[in-house]
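INFO  loader      accepted 1 record
INFO  loader      residues=188
INFO  predictor   begin
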Amino acid sequence: MTITPKQRAALTDAVRGGTESLFRRAATAAFLWALVFTAFHFYWFAGGRFGLGDGPKMIPETGTTKDLIWAFVITSMFVVGIFLPVALTRPWGRRIPRWITVCCLWIGSALLVVRGGAGLLDTALRETGLADRGLTGLTYQQITGDAHPSLNTKVSGICIDAYFILGGLLYGRTVLLHRRLVRGADEG
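INFO  predictor   done
INFO  writer      dumping tokens
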């Protein structure tokens, strides 16, 4: 069976439309993920404790200038991370060179997956007894302020690590679908 040029064009448009829809949904999901992620961090910086478990030392202290600068840099990355996925879908995002947006999303994706995966591995090593100090070399006492943290604290940590991985996967999916969309436009 041969496909006419008109049928090929219709098929290409249908595939492109489906990819564009998937891309927009992925970008929106990544945006919402980053919004919730950043909101929780602002909440925690303000002293909130929901989602952190009940360990006495769950929020890192920012007592030195170095700590405050680090917190500012990290928070700035969170805020930028909110707008990156949306920048690929909105007209205002065209002012930012695409390669910058795409590179930042790839880097963000990698950092989030590595951070979440390392956290899960760290906990798994400690909980299985394979390494009392986990991957980081730190004890539970050093991390949470409690040598024997509650199940609530451990599960909270696992959920936070899994949320990091989810964000990395959403950023990665957004970039992959964007690439497919751009390649489809170049071919069409």
